[in-house]
Design goal:
The protein is mainly α. It has helices at 5-15, 29-37, 50-61, 93-97; strands at residues 103-104, 112-113. The protein has two domains: 5-72, 3-methyladenine DNA Glycosylase II, Chain A, domain 3; 79-123, 2-Layer Sandwich (Alpha-Beta Plaits), CATH 3.30.70.20. Helix 1 (5-15) packs across helix 2.
Length: 123
């Protein structure tokens, strides 16, 4: 008997880096995990997870290891968001795109990145 899709998606999601960057073409890591579990997406679309993440997914799913699909980005060191104080006008654009609420601030006031929460999604 095969594993239920939801349980498999949870196991896949645990391997993904949780950057919520959408580089894979899905609106976050969980939707990508669900698509992989349903067989609707390949395992090689996650640049933040890189080769190591692809290898872990391949082992979990008993599939061949694939190279990272360059159409979805390239593997590189994780970065953190940064607010340039001299340029910040408090427009809140950064807050609106942050998928993990790692930027705080108020309109027309300086914003701050919560470093421990930032996933480096580059959005």
């Amino acid at each position: 008997m095969s594993e239920p899709i939801d349980t498999l998606a949870t196991r896949i999601d645990a391997i993904l880096p949780q950057t919520q960057c959408e580089q894979c073409g899905f609106h976050g890591c969980r939707p990508y995990a669900e698509a992989i579990a349903r067989g609707e997406a390949p395992i090689n679309r996650c640049p933040p997870g890189g080769a190591a993440g692809i290898a872990k997914l391949a082992a979990l799913l008993d599939r061949p290891v694939l190279p990272l699909d360059p159409a979805h980005g390239v593997e590189k060191p994780r970065t953190l968001a940064r607010i340039v104080e001299a340029d910040c006008i408090g427009c809140t654009k950064c807050i609106q795109v942050c998928p993990v609420d790692a930027i705080v601030g108020a309109p027309k006031l300086m914003h701050t990145v919560l470093i421990d929460d930032c996933t480096g999604c580059e959005l």
